[in-house]
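Exercise 3.2. Students should predict the tertiary structure of the chain below and write it as structure tokens, then compare their answer with the key that follows.

Predict this chain's 3D structure.
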Amino acid sequence: MKRSSGFPWRRARRTTPAETEAFRKAIEGTTGKPRPPRGRPPKPEGERHRATSIRLHPRVLAWARREAARRGIGYQTVINEALLRMS
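Answer key:
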């Protein structure tokens, strides 16, 4: 069972990018260390993936999901690797 913190999360506002930057600078000033960048690093131009939509047979998708679960990676990665092996 979840415990309520008592904070009204539904009424809380998001911080602005300017506030986030000010907080980052304040933390860096206090600790004396720069904050590490968040998120994934950008990929080189030739390695970026393009979003696409494709229809696959349900057995193909089931295979990719099983293989992905076995290997501990995403099923789209499994499909991408299989297609790259064919090229």
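Discussion points: The mean pLDDT is 90. Helices lie at 17-31, 58-71, 75-86.
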